[in-house]
Design goal:
Strand order of the largest sheet: 14-13-10-11-12-15-20-18
Distance between the termini: 44 Å
CATH topology of the largest domain: D-amino Acid Aminotransferase, Chain A, domain 1
Helix content: 25-40%
CATH architecture of the largest domain: 2-Layer Sandwich
Strand content: 25-35%
CATH superfamily of the largest domain: ATP-grasp fold, B domain
Length: 440
């Protein structure tokens, strides 16, 4: 195992990763921008290094600055967390070239999964179901020509990147041309890649992902997570098990994901993202080649520390699991954002109060937060404040809890009212919901 690890990230995921480091006795090294000089992840690290000015391109998206910080710290390895450079093959190679272990998939795998069109082709070649699609394109007329073969409606996506950025739905030629222009512009802005692709859009679909772990000897799954409660194509609430899957469908989806990732030579933790149709058919969406925001759901229902498994795999020890473990009970995760609960627009500012009216340690809930009272939520980054994860013996008993109501945040707007509304929504309670629950 590693003696010292630098986390090339911030906020709740850095704080969560440090928790495993402390348990294992590894030194936790943080990096920070000017906006994060006094941030919680900096306070919780053993050592911290400034990597640049507040905007992400000058700090958390600067590979050279992070590698220099890791060298100065004498770190053994780099954990990228999620977002920022987590799925950058260039960053992975820079770390490996500097003699640092990379806690993630091999760079060649990251190159494949980072190109959404190439990933679609690769999964199709492994016999994983893939929606009809076409691309890459950079001009609207190319997409319009492809639509004549595929048919409407279509989903337009950026070839590089993720997080729902640049995605749009088109029901005719005019909407498609507009969606391609928007996706191309945002792809160039956020991912330095203007190319886009299209795939058949499935109305009333559900979003289900399969958690994968792989080392040099075996590839296993740790079940699925339902991620259909979304705003702007970004996840807000997740749960496991998925209410939409029966035993047969679960076995088919998880088995297909394991076989495909194994054929791709995947190593580490990652997820296979799928769209599930109302008729119960599943299709490949993309691979998230990193730890996921919603990974605590898998941890709280299986007892597996996914960060520890990442460390074990990257160090060459291999995962501790001989096979897929048992899963117990039901879990739901709520993402708490600094945003307007009606418009979902970011609402940065200072947190004057952040209190939880229950003991912090319990088998029935878990809080992963990147901020505390008195901290500022900057305007420069994703406004995720933290996550509340609840756990019970079954899904019915989860709705008897009032854990989320025990969290109090004051000083800025949060989406807590929206989360509570979904938790009480009859469609969500019944389990009969889809990605349109919060609108598009």
């Amino acid at each position: 195992m590693f003696r010292s690890v630098l986390v090339a990230n911030r906020g709740e995921i850095a704080c969560r990763i440090f928790r495993t480091f402390r348990r294992l006795g590894a030194e936790a090294v943080a990096v920070y921008s000017d906006a994060d000089a006094g941030a919680k992840h900096v306070r919780e690290a053993d050592r911290a290094f400034r990597i640049g000015e507040s905007p992400a391109p000058a700090s958390y998206l600067n590979p050279a600055a992070i590698v220099d910080a890791a060298r100065e710290a004498g770190a053994d390895a780099v954990h990228p967390g999620y977002g920022f450079l987590a799925e950058s093959a260039m960053f992975a190679r820079a770390c490996l070239g500097a003699g640092l272990a990379w806690i993630g998939p091999p760079p060649e795998v990251l190159e494949l999964t980072g190109d959404k069109v190439a990933a679609r082709r690769a999964f199709a070649e492994t016999d994983f179901p893939v929606l009809p699609g076409a691309g890459p394109f950079t001009e609207p007329f190319e997409a319009v020509a492809a639509a004549a073969r595929i048919g409407y409606p279509l989903m337009v996506k950026a070839v590089s990147g993720g997080g729902g950025i640049g995605m749009g739905i088109a029901g005719d030629e005019a909407q498609l041309a507009s969606a391609v222009e928007t996706a191309s512009t945002r792809g160039a802005r956020f991912f330095a890649d203007p190319s886009v692709y299209v795939e058949r859009y499935v109305p009333h679909a559900r979003h289900v992902e399969i958690q994968i772990l792989a080392d040099d000897h075996r590839t296993i799954h740790l079940y699925e997570r339902e991620c259909s409660v979304q705003r702007r194509h970004q996840k807000v609430i997740e749960e496991t098990p998925s209410p939409a899957l029966d035993r047969v469908l679960r076995h088919s989806m998880c088995g297909s994901a394991v076989r495909s990732m194994e054929k791709l030579g995947y190593r580490g933790a990652g997820t296979v993202e799928c769209v599930l149709t109302p008729e119960g058919e599943f299709f490949f969406l993309e691979v998230n080649a990193r730890i996921q925001v919603e990974h605590p759901l898998t941890e709280i229902t299986t007892g597996v520390d996914l960060v520890e498994e990442q460390l074990r795999i990257a160090s060459g020890e291999g995962m501790s699991l001989p096979a897929t473990p048992a899963r117990h009970g039901h879990g739901i995760e709520f993402r708490v954002y600094a945003e307007d609960p009606r418009t979902f627009l970011p609402s940065p500012g200072r947190i004057h109060r952040l209190e939880f009216d229950l003991p912090l340690e319990s088998s029935q809930w878990r809080l992963d937060f990147g901020y505390g009272a008195g901290d500022d939520v900057p305007m420069f980054y994703d406004p995720l404040i933290g996550k509340v994860i609840i756990h019970a013996g079954d899904r019915v008993n989860l709705f008897q809890t009032s854990v989320l109501e025990k969290l109090h945040i004051e000083g800025l707007k949060t989406n807590l009212p929206a989360l509570l509304a979904v938790f009480a929504d009859e469609r969500f309670v019944s389990g009969d919901y889809d990605t349109g629950l919060l609108g598009k």
